[in-house]
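User: Show me a protein chain along with its predicted structure.
Assistant: Here is one chain, sequence first, then structure tokens.
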Amino acid sequence: MEYPEDQIPHVIRSLTQRSRQDQQATLEDYFLPDAYFVHPFCRVPSFGDYKIPFTGWTINSRQFVFFIYQWYRILSPEIKLDIDSTCFDKKTNLLYVTLRQTFTLWFVPFSLWQANVKLVTVLELQRLPTDHHHKPLPGQQNSNSNLSLVQQPRQLYFIKGQQDHYQVEDFLKFIAPWGASLLWVVWQLYATVICALGVIFLRIPNVFVRERVFKLDSKAIKKQ
């Protein structure tokens, strides 16, 4: 990618709403071979090409990311997805994407198993020099070639890793769409009430115990 904020919507839609061939081509074009993936329900650690003994097959972590996206499409062939915002932090090479999606299990009748969720995806990017096929050149990350003598290859951003962040009530919708997220909201409200009651009734006793018994400082909670 040359302009990550502008190009990432195309990448996301290709992975979540298009064909198997589009998914594979997108991963090969935009993800590094040792890309990692972190999600509340699955994880792919980063590892490069590994030859499986006696098979002639070579695998890497990007291949497992492909399996995850393929299984995602198998379970829910009709994904509804809206990208709300993108923001690229050049200092840290992190691309933030907020999006909403509707995940529906195709084999459950009348769309009874449907998850309407919101998440923030954090993509770690790496800028690398590329060849004429726009593929990263191996071993060129720290190249110090003289610009006056050698024409420098074009540099593009590639995805080094992906992390998907959900609120608890959102990822609960995937595994228990019939009320589990509502129960979690009730628990959150209950915890909020406990916080309020703790401040009202226990702040002063807490200050007394900290200062008089344990000889600890209580400026953070003591009324000035």
